[in-house]
Structure formats: C-alpha cells, structure tokens
Amino acid sequence: MNKVEAIFRQCVQVITLLLFLNLGTPAFPDDGYLEMSLEDLMDVEIVSVSKKPETFQDVASSIYVISEEDIRRSGATRLVEVLNLAPGTFFADYTYNSCNSGIRSGGSPVPQSVLLLVDGFPMNSPVSGGIPYDFIDVPLQQIDRIEVIKGPGGTIYGAGANTGIISIFTKRANDNKGLLVSVQGGLQDYASPYLRHNRTISDNSSFMIYGSYKTTRGYDKPTMFSSSTITAPRPGEPDTLVANRFIRNDTDGKKAISLGAHLQSRVSDKLTSNTRLSYTATATKQYQNLHALPIHIVKDRESSALSVQERFDYTFHPDHQMFLTAQFRRMNITECLFGTYKPNNWILDFEIQDNIRLMSHDLSFGANYRVAKYDIQDANDDDDMGFTVLNTTETLYAAFVQDKIAITDRVDFTAGIKAETWTLISKQPEYSPSLRLTVKPKDNVTLWSAYSHSITTPGFLQTRIEIAAAEIPYIPMQTSHLFLEGTDELYAAVIPGPDVQPIRYDTYELGLRANLSRKVNLDLSMFYTAVDGDIGMDPNFMMKDPRYSSLHSSRTILPIYYTNTSDDKMFGGELVARLLPVAHLRTELSYSVLKIESEAREIPEQPGQYYALSDEVPDAPEHTVRFRNYLDFPRQGWYLSTSAIWRSEYSRGEGFDYVAQVEPYGMGGVMIDPPQGEIDLNLTVEKRFYNDQWSVNLWGRNLLTNERVQGHLSYVEIGYPHSVHRTFGGGLSCQL
C-alpha cells in the first residue's frame, strides 16, 4: 500500500465517522452571484489588485472573477479547466497532468511570468520559478472564488507577476456551517470524493476541516499506438510500417489527496486571526525517453507539500487596517529532467501591509521577507544533469509603497513602486514602479489606463545547473584543440550564461467598463508589452571557448548558455460582454486577441551574428472566443450550463519522429501537433431537491473534440503521446 492509498483509507474512516454526527441542516450556498443585477456586479469586492478590498468598478486593472457557482457549473475536474473560463488566459493540455499555458503571453509548460497565489501565498516552484500545475491539486469544492488579473502586478507582488496573477481564495471556517459530502465520477476511471465540515467552536471562533481524494487514468493512447505496429506517416514518402515502441500500459493517470484545516477567530473587536493547515500528495507516472536515445522508461513522479499559514488582521478604525501574514511550506517533488532529481525544499514567508486613508490619499505600504532552502537530492543519476550547487539558502527582501489619490470625485491617480533583492540572482535591488489613472465620466462608466515595469528573474534551474546535452566524438583533426589540459571527455552542455539578466517587462494598458443598460455590461481592456531580454538557449556552442566542467574534472564542455536571446513585443486585448436578456438567464461572450513579435539579439562576442530563435510556429492562439450561458429553473430545481471555446490556429510545437519514435534531432521528423484551430463544447445539468440540500449533476466535456494527438513535453523531455477526447461524468453532493 503506497502513501497516497494509506491516507485515503484514513479519510474514508473520518468521513464515515462524521456522517453519524448531528451537524445541523444548512442549505447549499445561495446563488447570489448569479442573481445579481449588472449594477450590483460592478460593486463586487476585489482584493487581489492591491491586497485590500476595492469594487470591481474602481480597479484600474483587467480582472476577471470566477465564482464558486461558476466552478460547480463548469463540470471541471481540474484547476486548469476552471482557469480556461477566464478571457485572456490559455491552457492547452499536453496530458491530463500537464499543459501549455500563459496569460497574455506565449505558451509555456512552466510559465514564469504568471504568479499563482492560494490564500495570498505564492505557489510557483522555487526551483523553476514557474507554475507546476501537475503538482498543484487544490480541491475545486474548496475554492470560494478565483480572481484572475490579466497584466502586471509587480508593484504589489514583485518579480514573476508580469503578464498575469491567479489568486485563489479557499473556503473559510465561518462559511456554511455543517457537513458537505460530494462524490464525483466519470469516464477514464475518474473518481473524487470530497468532505468538508464547518463548526462553530464559540461565539468568536469557527473551525473547518476538509479532505479530498482523486484518481483517474487520464487521457488514453492515440489509436495509432494501440497495436504492436504503427503506420508512420513520412513527409513526401509512402507511409512506413514500423514497430510500436510504446507497448507498456498507459501512464497518464494520477492519484492525489488533499487534507486541510482552518481556524478562524475574533481575538478582539479589532483583531482577527486565520490559521490554515494543508497537506497535498500526488502520484503520477511519466513515460519518457532519455535524451537523444530511443529508450523508454516509466518514471514515478511523486510529490508532497505541507503548508502552515497564519494571518492577523487589525482594524484601528474604518479608514486604517493592517495585516500580517506568515507561511511555512515544505515541498518534496520527484522531477524528471535528463534523469531524475528530487528537490526537497522549504520556504518561510513573512509579509506586513498597512492601509490607511488620509483625506484624499488612500495609502498602502508594506514589506515582505522570504527564506528559501534548496536541497537537491538524487541528482545526476543518469550522468546527464547535475547541479553546481545542491544545497543552499537564499533570501528575498522587499518593500513597497503605493498611494491612490482622489484628484476629484471622478478621477483617481495611483502611483507605487516596489524594491526587492533576491540573493539567488544578485544583491542589487530591482524596482517595479507603476502608474494608474481612473476616470468615471458617469456613474456606470469607468475609463482606466496604466503603465507598469516588472521583472522575471532566472530561477534555480537557470542558474545552478549543468546539462550534458551531447557528447562530441574525439576526432583528432577536428576536436583535439578543444580539449582542456587534464580532460579526456568533450561534451556540449547547457549552463547559465555569464551575463544573464532578469527579463524586464514594460506594459501599457487601457480599459473601459460600462453598463450600457440594465441588461448589458461591457468590459474592454487593451495592452502593449515590451519584453527586454527574454531568456532562451544559445545554440552556437561550437563558437564558444571551451570550459572545464563544474561537475566532472575529466570533462571539457562547450557551453550552451541560458541567456537573454531575444526581445519581444506582445499586444492585444480582451472584450467581455455580459447579458441578462430575461430572468434566470445569464449569457457571457468574450473575445481575446494576442499578437507576439520576437527579434533576436546580437551575440555580444560575435558582431553581426544573432541568436537563433525557435521555429515560427504559434504556441498560443491569436484569436479566442468564449461563450457561456446559464439557464435556471429554480422552482423546478433545474440548472443548465453551457460553455464553448473557439481558438484560432496554434500548436504545442513538438516535433516527433514516428519511425524512431523520439523527438527528431535533425531532419526526418514530422509535427505531431501541427498548427490547427479548435472548437469545444461543455455541458452541465444540475438538479437540486430537498430544499436544495441535495444536488445531482451530469456533465460532458470536450464534446466536439476529435482525437487530437499531442506529445508530453515536460521540462524538455519527450514523453508518451496522448489524445484529448470526449469524457462524461456526474456526481452527488449533500449539505447536512
């Protein structure tokens, strides 16, 4: 019995015990969000933009809110399916467990310009700096709402908040007292029981515990890999019949368990305390080949994360509030990159922020301090990848100030700046300033504009590694001069560039929010982002001076530098129209556009020579249209939900050699996922009864999807090709 299954059995015992307790009979959360008028919707409180409450009408940022009701009615089984509801975002599966994603940017398996927060704390990987969606398993029933900011937030959040911020707020202890039990299941062996119990301890304290388990076999093999042979297409040649190397059982499945608790207390009339404890464990497998070799290996990928959070809120008076937060998070993850390594890291994070209103000034200032412990274990197993530093502690120091000035009753101007020092990169501070202007020509119309400068710093992987990409054969007449004294091996190796700099983003934004009538609301935002020094790999290793390996004394390496290889321009926008044509019918239609232009940088030591950019294959769609429709029959207890998405041509950009069944090196490969558009449809039907205490739903996802083969590009490695396909399921929920 593995660790995940053992914990699952304990959860079942807890659920069985609690079902026998007398816990009261509150109903499901009401549908107030859906029953709001459009005027009320503009007054919804947003806290992610400045970490303090503001109305949706007042914020000078492009923001989209995904409510608890939206999540339940989506029929989603994963976080990325929920996030796909937000205009301006992009999530395209590699497998069930990993995806290509971005917000106002090109696609990436581990996006580093987007910041993911859960209850205010960052969840980005301390190793890569990106978002490891395959290891993040927040139970969807535990989410209260998600605020998605499209655009930068460096002044408040610091480095990494360049093109988007995803802020997830989970349930609190004083929400919906009682016991909620939910069981979901569907095709692909999907099953997910969930339990949440809220209880009042005293007049001033409430307590909540929750637990969830999920198992699925994920996406299936493409039909072309279902037999012992493959009819392999070859460009300009007849199809070739070859042996199928992917003969093992499929490995796209996942098991995950999440446990947590929340204690909410009012210590005094002015002081409140929120304590959260959470534990998540995931288990997946990855079917991959070693670098440049057609040798397929099944890798066990397990992860666990333990988090303890504390937040104190103190209210001096209605115009003066302060909060203090602290988090300890420990992560153990098995990673697959040219072999296996296991980061065993922890992060300790403190933050304080003071918000005070003084006459026409709405002032915020604060500071945060972060300690990150890196402990890399079991690295370099296959002699392909090694870390130049295996064990180190790095620190982040940061402080910010921001002032929102009411120039008139209808005009606000906001200015702010953040300074931060991240010792992993440099001891010199980096600055993230921003300017924002809000104008309300009418009560139901808001115009806003903004300028922001933000940075994305290289991560641990880009500063502390050495990857042996390929051995260079010893040919005396051609390579003998490259060997350094005392070495007898010669490799091309990926290493950090000697002068790599943080990526800098300068973003300009314009926006409009307006209620055109009681039944029509528009939200328009446009942006232009100049990216200075996007980081990539410099492939011209034969032009570089040889170096001694940092890991092997007998090895000379020709460096493939991680460095700033290009400058980018990204521009586009989003238009969201919300319609309330009749009672109990809500419709939302959105359009997003994204254009990206890249220009290679000149190689510093080679005048007139430029870095090579990747193929001009769009890795994110230029145009996206989303449609959502809710039709309710509350008297009869029926709730119908429809969502559809259309994307213009894009590709995950993976080459694949069907004959050798590996990523192609050189000529001969074909695109396993050629650029193409797609349209998809999801449906959900929900029936509530017994005073809305019980709920049954049926859902269908990817209903218009034909088999679309896509490879698994996880951290540079090629894995098993899978297919997105139609899937169906349903569930039962009970609020006791």
Summarize the structure.
The protein is built from seven helices and 44 strands. It is 6% helix and 56% strand.
Count of helical regions: 7
Q: Structural class of the helix and strand makeup?
A: mainly beta
Under CATH, the homologous superfamily reads: TonB-dependent receptor, beta-barrel domain
| Residues in helix, % | under 10%
Terminal-residue CA separation = 32 Å
Number of domains: 1
- Give the CATH class: Mainly Beta
What's the total number of strands?
44
How many whole angstroms does the radius of gyration measure?
Answer: 26 Å
Strand proportion, as a percent range, falls in over 45%
Mean pLDDT across every amino acid position: 84
What shape does the CA trace take? globular
What is the annotated CATH architecture? Beta Barrel
What's the main sheet like? 22 strands, antiparallel, barrel
Low-confidence parts: 10-31, 290-294, 665-669, 711-718
